[in-house]
Specification:
The chain has 385 residues and is an alpha+beta fold. Helix content is 34%, strand content 25%.
Length: 385
Amino acid sequence: MVEPPPGVGRPRAGQEGFDSERDGMQSRRSAPHRRGPRDGALEVRAGRPDDDAARDAFVAAQPEGGFAQRAGWLRAGERVFGHRRRDLVAWRDGRIVGVLPLARCERLLGPAHLISVPYGVCAGPLGEDELVVRVLVAAAVELARVERVGRLELRCDADPGLDDLATSDLYVAFARDLPAAGEDILTGLPKEERRLVRRARDRHGLELVEGAEHITDLERLFHDSKRRLGSPSLPLAWFQTLHEELGGAAVVHATRRVGITVAASLSFVHGDTISMYYVGTTPEANRAWAATSFMIAGLAEWARERGLSRFDLGRSRRDSGALAFKRNQGFEARPLAYRYHLVRSRTTPSFTPSNPRTRILREVWARLPRAVTHGLSPAAARYLP
């Protein structure tokens, strides 16, 4: 249970926001990476469409901000899957000082969940000081109670210092700084990966190309990759809508061999970071040509040429084979600090292959004909945010 800091009232059921009437409030914990609270009343209210431009400017200005905290991500989820926005915005002295992107995600069976954010890896509460973060989370906890959801799920990157919420160590993330010069990217790879990338380029003739016209290739290859893993995919409309909503921040690349696309990716640029987010490959792309290794190196060079200095390779489960692959690319794992407030749910998520319930479903899905999984995936993805 999260209590508002002293001097901050709990919102009443159905109330859109709440105000703190005490100036100069001090948070209960210190956070050396955040600025201290400023004078002025703090108000948290439901986000509105006419706030979107200002809140995106706030997210862009914060060192800890990320692309999935932008309003366009929530708009895309609402347009494609019907996940209704429940985002919260904190104001002080007439300006935005914090955001908590939230969506109400319905389930096929059982109560809905409030998630920050659906289909996002890292998009937790963001505030200019710790007090703002705590008040945003307190408002979200109350909203979860009022709406009687199963759980409030905050997909935080770093530990937000909210000890009252349930934790999970299911996922780890991978990111590293890029070399100062693009030509050092290849030489900085582990020896075996460097050999694979050079052979992919010089012997197999792989090339990396950019362009939104490759979104259809991405959807096709992403579906086939997920099907091989026994998991539903995401519809073409999701990739297209993200590209539309996030504009130049969404970048599509394809890896081609003799004119045929063998791998494709959708990445996001935010601040000084490129995040390689969605990837799809043909069955033989990595086995025969190391296409994903080639694409990671090529995207790193592409990013460095554009002045970006950090590469994010997304998340993986602690028990997955992807973890070893990403380490071979020179990335080190760091734990993701997901936090949960359980309302009607009894446990935190545990979607792993070792879970007997999900393992059986994965095995069945992988054996279904492609036409069946392609037709069922959009509906299934709505309930797997």
